[in-house]
Write a structure and sequence with these properties.
Layout lengths: L5 E7 L3 H12 L4 E4 L11 E4 L2 E4 L10 H10 L5 E5 L2 E5 L2 E5 L3 H8 L1 H16 L8 H9 L1 H16 L9 H6 L5 H9 L14 E5 L4 H13 L3 E3 L2 E9 L3 E9 L20 E11 L3 H7 E2 L6
Parallel strand pairs: 1-2, 1-12, 2-9, 10-13
Antiparallel strand pairs: 3-4, 5-8, 6-7, 10-11, 11-12
Length: about 300
């Protein structure tokens, strides 16, 4: 059992990664404490509730080709809590909506005949003279879609999403998100669509969705962690990760926040301990906080290299 503020495993963050780790540990009777700075679980997969309405902070489709992941989802949530829904995605560009995956008639109609010909010519040129460096996201996309379509749709979107110039992002960003897809593949799919396409991640037509939003999955996971003996501590943000060279992490210091972030509202003014520090000793720590934040939180500071 967890002894006061001592636990076998401390998990930083009650988002999908942290709660999944905690869930797997309590299944194995390992004492675990999850530490979350916000007043809500789920991280960016949360579903906020206000005045009886639920709002998804981010749209998170439940689709996987990994049987173990599928089994875990349905172990946490019963089948009747999942809805199977058709997927509709569109790109808003230059005042027009483009179906995604590509539908030939829609795309050509929106681009107009002149620009459509230019995009096809740009794609053919990329097939004849592909970029020399395809290790970057820019090179990877241009090689498969041509420079003109890349500049229309992919460049600005990815730079807004990641905050990094596309020519500095590694190609595996694309390989994970639009793997197996090229302009040829998209056109073939548009002309001969297959029901419930699963071979190309970006072209799936159906997905599962918890009936009360993605946050329902993680709210249920947090409850089940607690029911099985784990502890989920809310409104405490990990500020310091204590460690000793040769021994590893020895404990964590948190700061009481009172909650913050999208969907959680302002900090709870009724709490009198906001800003107070708490300490937790742990034999092991699993971190789902941003890696850069973890490095800055280490005490003593890690070697520069």
């Amino acid at each position: 059992t967890t002894d006061g503020n001592r636990t076998s495993v401390a998990v930083i963050g009650a988002g999908p990664a942290g709660l999944t780790a905690a869930y797997e540990l309590v299944r194995r009777q390992v004492p675990v404490t999850v530490l979350e700075g916000d007043a809500m679980v789920g991280g960016i997969s949360r579903t906020a509730e206000r005045e009886g309405w639920r709002f998804d902070i981010g749209g998170h489709r439940f689709f996987t080709k990994v049987p173990e992941v599928e089994a875990l989802w349905h172990e946490i949530l019963p089948d009747e809590d999942f809805l199977l829904r058709p997927r509709m995605s569109r790109i808003f560009y230059d005042g027009k909506l483009y179906d995604y995956p590509l539908k030939a008639g829609n795309a050509l109609g929106n681009l107009g005949p002149v620009e459509a010909v230019r995009c096809v010519a740009s794609y053919l040129w990329a097939r004849i003279r592909p970029p020399k460096n395809q290790d970057t996201l820019e090179g990877w996309i241009v090689a498969r879609f041509g420079k003109r379509l890349y500049e229309h749709f992919f460049k600005t979107y990815n730079e807004k999403l990641w905050g990094v110039p596309v020519d500095q992002l590694p190609a595996d960003f694309a390989a994970q998100r639009i793997k197996n897809l090229s302009l040829t593949g998209a056109v073939i799919n548009a002309l001969t669509p297959k029901r419930n396409q699963k071979e190309i991640t970006s072209l799936i037509e159906e997905f599962q969705y918890p009936k009360y939003g993605p946050g329902m999955m993680w709210e249920t996971a947090a409850r089940k962690v607690q029911e099985r003996g784990g502890t989920v501590v809310m409104e405490e943000k990990v500020r310091t990760v204590h460690w000793e060279p040769g021994r590893g992490v020895t404990g964590l210091t948190t700061e009481v926040t009172g909650g913050y972030g999208s969907g959680a509202g302002a900090p709870d003014a009724s709490r009198t301990d906001i800003g107070a520090e708490k300490h937790y000793e742990a034999d092991h720590v699993i971190s789902s906080m941003p890696f850069s934040s973890l490095v800055h939180a280490l005490d003593p500071k890690p070697p520069a290299e």
